[in-house]
Amino acid sequence: TLLERSMRPSASLKRLVSFFGSDHFSCRTFEHLWRARNELGVSLHCVGPPAHLPRGNIEPVATPLEQLAQARELQYESVRASDLPSWKPPYERQVDDVLVTASYGGMIPRGLLDRYAEHHCLNVHPSLLPVWRGSAPIERAIATGKLDTGVTVQTLSPDAFDRGLILASEAHTLEDGAMYAVARDQLANIGGDLLVRVLQQLFAGKLTSREQDNHKATIARKLRHQDSRIDFASHSASQIMQHHRAFSHRHPIWTTYLDRNLVLLKLDVDANGHVGSPGSARWDDGRQSVRIETIQGDLLVSELQLTGGKPQGARSWWRGHAISRGHKSLIFGT
């Protein structure tokens, strides 16, 4: 009813921040907003995708943001991005209300954005826009070795992702060798602090903005399973390791062996490995690993998994697929 829709989380607070998100980046960003809620004078409301049913599960699993909202005893609205054009916010909007997205995963339609005042629809994006526009900016930065990155708070555009006005940004250099999850958390912490500062400026009437330089734009396209496939003939061991750190949280690094996909779960690099035949593998007893040659350096694999099988330690796997068949070496990726 209209009466129910007009009820806000806290009648004593003037502004409502509707936070759209889904994953761990969303959660860590939101935590900064949660801690600053009293200082900002806001109440909070979360929106995100509904629970999903992972393969092999009997019960649906809530998104990390929904779990966090439940822990904070906040209302969580389950809304698919495809349903947003017909979705109505549960509260009557007031002039200072704000909509924030952080890794929500969908376009906010113009009809919803138009309900808010200018500069009151914000996005926290983990790159220095216009560099790495798109859904996988952290992964692409790590995979390409471009560790000088950062976070941007921008306005939301109704026409395209990551084309808004820049309200604030902060540079950050990722640690060399950092896995995706570490980089994600570092950038989310920066993004959360940046978001709080932007809201302080917005509510004080001191917010400034600037256009993006579209000539400097690069695209961080969505991750695909094929991105994690290893080509030993065109990538060095160090480059493969970068891909492992960037992609393995979503799609573990893989190659092929005897027409089956072979996932490489635990990796290390010997940058001084001799250049021989890329894809050629042998047992390294000293490192207790399968040593695979690349165009530069060797990849050392200590845990593997063939499609349809279970993860195996390198020694057990090598015994079953090489020693038992009288082979001293194997070829991967053919």
Please describe the topology of this protein.
Layout: H1 2-6, E1 15-21, H2 24-35, H3 37-40, E2 42-48, H4 64-71, E3 76-78, E4 98-102, H5 110-113, E5 121-125, E6 133-134, H6 137-144, E7 148-155, E8 166-173, H7 180-203, E9 219-220, H8 237-247, E10 254-257, E11 260-270, E12 280-284, E13 289-293, E14 298-306, E15 312-313, H9 314-321, E16 329-331
Parallel strand pairs: 1-2, 1-4, 2-3, 4-5, 6-9
Antiparallel strand pairs: 5-7, 7-8, 10-11, 11-14, 12-13, 12-16, 13-14, 14-15
- Which regions have little confidence, pLDDT < 50, spanning 5+ residues? 1-7
Mean pLDDT: 92
> What is the name of the CATH superfamily of the largest domain?
Formyl transferase, N-terminal domain
The total number of structural domains is 2
* CATH-assigned fold name of the largest domain: Rossmann fold
Order of helices and strands: HEHHEHEEHEEHEEHEHEEEEEEHE
**How many strands in all?**
16
Q: What proportion of the residues form beta strands (DSSP E)?
A: 25-35%
Task: Please write the CATH class name of the largest domain.
Answer: Alpha Beta
Count of helical segments?
9
The main sheet orders its strands as 3-2-1-4-5-7-8
**From the helix content, strand content and strand pairing, which structural class follows?**
alpha/beta
Helix proportion range: 25-40%
Radius of gyration: 24 Å
Largest sheet: 7 strands, mixed
